[in-house]
Specification:
Structural class: alpha+beta
Number of helices: 10
Shape: rod-shaped
Strand content: 5-15%
Oligomer: single chain
Length: 469
């Protein structure tokens, strides 16, 4: 025979379970606008049934239920979507870094505008053609000198700005390394807290949300591989090397590298092993510094060096108004130090516009100088200096447009994945209100069971033994 208080015990369990479920609903509603919060669900299960003790198994209805309990408070999360979101966030971070760098490069070249390097080159070549028509004119020669000075100054300015941009990217890479180290330390600390909660037999749902948000933030900076252990701690690796291993974090170092002109190389911990991120903002920054901007600098230097060499070769064969010859027009080695020679700067008469000595009215060499701009050059891949520079500027525009398109594409994809994640893990206030009413009614019904059992017990206690008095 079951205990008289058996029904009250079932009602007690029901009250406790519904109250805990209401607490979970309240927690969800409170965090409806909390970034990264995952909806939680109180999983209810039946308590172990009661079997009547007997010498022989009864042939009755079977075991008797003993009520309900909260088996777990489960976090609603799709780990596959989380993995996809991290992967796409890595790519988004890389393309954003490339786009930002390319926008700076476009501002430096200022194409098309009257202040651009192309404009300075065109004006210089036009002044040479004018000199061909008026080789004895000091005014025409002065224009050539001023346009040459403007061209060399523009070359140097663009070179300096590109070099400064590389150093800015270098400093930005160092800042990203500091952010990565900070996130790694925070992940190791959260792992430690998760481990303590799990070993105590509890579910660290809010800590898991914080862990996933840190992983997502880290994935924006660098490409990571994440392994979730059985104890719910996250191990994180970069390029096969573990930056977060349980409760321990390994720091990255940004070390000045003489082989790169003292720009930094990312090293692993206290070792000399280089870390080469292929994705994330750090990967995009290093790619922009070492490939994009460095490539544009190399092209600019090649153009300036070719201009110096080819123009001087023609100028040395000509004659100035004072019959001077074998003089260089430009000095320097590349875009960083290209300048007008002292001879030309000091005397306009030394500009070699003539092809013959003693014939100052001959402007044929000025025409040869002007044609240097449109002659194919083997050092530039067999194209003219004009086409080489046009190709350089067009390449920058195409790369910038591609980066813009990729950023937009990744933004759409990341937003889609975030919406999918929020559709699964986000808090719907309408659903929570429905659950709240459902658990409230269940709680009220359980309370009614307690009242009914109390009345039954009152009948037993107050009225039994009255008959026969």
């Amino acid at each position: 025979m079951r205990s008289t208080f058996f029904g009250i015990d079932i009602a007690r369990r029901a009250l406790q379970a519904q109250q805990r479920a209401l607490d979970v609903v309240g927690h969800n509603i409170a965090n409806a606008n909390t970034p990264g919060y995952s909806r939680q669900v109180a999983v209810q299960a039946t308590t172990p049934p009661y079997t009547y003790p007997s010498r022989h198994m009864p042939t009755g209805a079977g075991q008797v239920g003993t009520g309900v309990y909260i088996a777990a408070i489960r976090r609603v999360r799709d780990e596959f979507i989380d993995m996809q979101l991290r992967n796409e966030t890595e790519s988004a971070g890389r393309w954003q870094a490339r786009r930002d760098a390319l926008r700076q490069v476009e501002l430096i070249f200022l194409e098309p505008s009257d202040l651009s390097l192309r404009s300075a080159m065109d004006q210089f070549w036009q002044s040479l053609q004018d000199l061909h028509l008026q080789p004895e004119s000091d005014a025409a020669r002065a224009v050539v000198r001023e346009r040459a000075l403007s061209l060399t100054a523009t070359f140097q300015h663009v070179h300096k700005q590109l070099t400064d941009l590389r150093w800015d990217l270098d400093r930005l890479a160092q800042l990203e390394v500091e952010r990565i180290n900070s996130l790694a330390e925070r992940l190791a600390d959260v792992n430690n807290q998760i481990f303590r909660v799990v070993t105590s037999g509890q579910e660290p749902n809010d800590l898991l949300d914080r862990r996933d948000e840190l992983l997502l933030e880290l994935s924006e900076l660098v490409d990571i591989d994440v392994v979730i252990l059985d104890n719910k701690m996250a191990n994180v690796a970069i390029g096969g090397l573990s930056i977060v291993n349980g409760q321990h974090a390994t720091m990255l170092r940004a070390v000045a590298d003489p082989a790169k002109g003292d720009m930094v190389t990312i090293r692993w911990g206290n070792t000399d092993r280089e870390v080469r991120p292929a994705n994330g903002r750090l990967g995009g920054i290093l790619e922009a510094r070492d490939e994009l901007v460095a490539g544009y600098l190399d092209s600019l230097n090649a153009l300036a060096a070719t201009l110096i060499e080819k123009f001087n070769a023609v100028h040395r064969d000509g004659y100035g108004l004072d019959d001077s010859t074998d003089l260089d027009f430009f000095v320097g080695t590349n875009a960083s130090d290209i300048d007008l020679s002292k001879d030309i700067y000091d005397s306009l008469s030394k500009i070699a516009a003539s092809s013959d000595v003693g014939t100052p009215g001959d402007g044929s060499n000025a025409l040869r100088l002007a044609s240097v701009y449109t002659e194919p050059v083997a050092a530039l891949g067999g194209v003219t200096m004009r086409d080489f520079f046009t190709s350089l500027v067009s390449g920058i525009g195409v790369a910038a447009q591609k980066a813009d398109n990729m950023v937009d594409s990744q933004a759409v994809l990341v937003e889609h994945l975030q919406n999918r994640r929020d559709g699964i893990s986000g808090v719907s206030l309408d659903e929570e209100m429905v659950d709240m009413i459902r658990f409230q009614q269940a709680y009220a019904a359980a309370a009614r069971v307690v009242t009914a059992m109390d009345e039954a017990l009152d009948t037993i206690i107050s009225r039994m033994g009255i008959v026969g008095r």
